[in-house]
Amino acid sequence: MNEQIVDCKRIRALFFDAGATILKSDFEISKLLVQFAGELGVELSLPYVKQAYDDANREYLLLYSQLFYRGKLAELEEYWHSFGSQLIIKTGCSQPDIKANRLHEMLTEYLLGDNSKAWRSFDDVLPVLNEARLRGLTLGIVSNWDHTLHRVLELLNLKQHFDFVLASAEVGSEKPDTAIFEKALNLAGVDAEEAMHIGDAYDADVAGALAADITPVLIDRNNAYPEAECIRITDLRQLWDYI
Predict the structure, then answer these.
(1) Cβ–Cβ contacts within 10 Å for residue 225, how many?
(2) Both 70 and 189 in a single domain?
(3) Is 226 exposed, middle or buried (0-12, 13-18, 19+ CB in 10 A)?
(4) What is the pLDDT of residues 119-159, one digit of tens each?
(5) What is the full DSSP assignment across 73-91?
(6) Are 127 and 210 in a shared domain?
(7) Sign of the C-alpha dihedral, residues 128, 203, 25, 144?
(8) 147 & 94 share domain
(9) What is the pLDDT of residues 45-63, one digit of tens each?
């Protein structure tokens, strides 16, 4: 393991990425759209849906911060409804808007409904969060996500463990941009050398934290980066070896 030589003894705040760091899932939106459409009697092509969804998601993220800060979340919902309508119209289906409404409802319920089983946390998450609290550390989430991150954390009873949650689309800054990290430092009330950021994406999490002078930790659960030149762990509980 190649690790940066860093002084981690002054750490007062831990920032965590969300997806693949503390949250895990085994679904793919494109496959869910095809599955739910099929249940509604509409046959969609997976390759077409996958490409259309990727394109739409990029456009959505560009629109998100503009609409969010103007308080227009209803327009963001309408954006996804329109996307569903366009998919269904391509099939020549009758009453595409009715089917699109139901498709949107089914997907939302699956991902964010009260009985959603779409999300899970890794086994090492709660022990680390509880230990961090006992040590008096400030905890935050810094993630490339939209406003639904708050709901996902609530579903898993995780949000209460954090002092703040920063979703990139709400902040208007996406990792590795330093602005989202600077916001986290401000909320935590610590200097950069007193913070540590833990994430699974080298380009976004490690590079972004380094650019903000924050100590990066790569959570490499699948041993994908054995030569990473930073602190690298395969289980969050290994954090305590460095703090």
Answers:
(1) 16
(2) no
(3) exposed
(4) 999 999 999 999 999 999 999 999 999 999 999 999 999 99
(5) HHHHHHHHHHHHHHHHHTT
(6) yes
(7) positive
(8) no
(9) 999 999 999 999 999 988 9
